[in-house]
Amino acid sequence: MKEKYDPISKMFHWLVFLLVAIEFLVAAAMPEMRGETDVSTLTDLHFSFGLLIIGVIMLRGMWAIIHLRPFVTSKSDVSIHTEPLANAMHYALYISLIAMPILGWAWASSRALAVSFFGLYSFSPLIIPGISAPQLGAMHSLLGVIIVLLVLVHVFAALYHHYVTHDETLIRMLPVRLAEKMKIEQK
Ligand code: HEM
Ligand code: HEM
């Protein structure tokens, strides 16, 4: 049996995708900081969007609990072997996206950079004892590369299901109207 995603879960999925895409674009555009404590508007945006990503993922998790649904799908039309793999991938994506802003926040704090949420709320510095600023920087950068790789594999898997195995894995994550249009095209 195929388990469908409800509209709110779909909305959360695509919102996270949009925010992560913006976050990487801002990261690429923001100036490199070389020890000075003044942060640019783009860097402030990077901090704010990063914190927003944690908030949205937490709301997505709460929605899964309230909605009495598993955080990731438990039933699907994929084979019994690939299902644990898909679940592991989904957890890995969300866990990395929670770890990433925490590392970024600790990295910013270790360099005495102020972290605020769109200028509305100032966060206290986050100090992780025993980890130096360069180590935090290396971890933040490395995790960035890992997230890109995970998303690429995830997107490849979604397209593989749609174009090679011709099942509904991609379709059921799409907005209803688009899903119906694509279902007709797939037949
Ligand atoms: C999911 C959320 C996030 C993603 C995907 C992300 C991604 C990135 C990427 C790709 C870079 C460039 C790394 C490099 O040059 O090697 C970067 C740099 C950085 N990020 Fe993040 N980041 C996130 C959240 C945050 C948060 C919440 C903060 C702080 C509150 C933060 C602080 C920083 C700092 C301080 C830099 C270094 C800027 C520089 O010195 O050039 N990041 N981030
Ligand atoms: C930052 C980017 C992305 C992240 C973090 C992400 C994460 C996730 C997660 C955690 C799930 C499990 C359901 C849930 O909890 O929401 C999921 C499902 C899914 N995602 Fe993504 N996703 C991303 C981008 C994409 C993109 C670009 C596509 C389209 C090609 C896509 C297609 C799908 C599909 C088809 C499913 C359903 C899989 C199934 O039911 O087994 N995702 N994604």
From TrEMBL:
GO cellular component: plasma membrane
Entries under Pfam families matching the protein: Ni_hydr_CYTB (PF01292)
Family: Belongs to the cytochrome b561 family.
Protein keywords: Cell membrane, Electron transport, Heme, Iron, Membrane, Metal-binding, Transmembrane, Transmembrane helix, Transport
Membrane topology label: Multi-pass membrane protein
Location in or out of the cell: Cell membrane
Protein name in UniProt: Cytochrome b561 bacterial/Ni-hydrogenase domain-containing protein
Organism this protein belongs to: Candidatus Lloydbacteria bacterium RIFCSPHIGHO2_01_FULL_49_22
Gene Ontology MF terms: electron transfer activity; heme binding; metal ion binding
InterPro entries: Cyt_b561_bac/Ni-Hgenase (IPR011577), Cytochrome_b561_oxidase (IPR052168), Di-haem_cyt_TM (IPR016174)
Transmembrane segments: 12-30, 45-68, 88-107, 113-131, 143-163
Record-annotated Cytochrome b561 bacterial/Ni-hydrogenase domain positions: 5-175
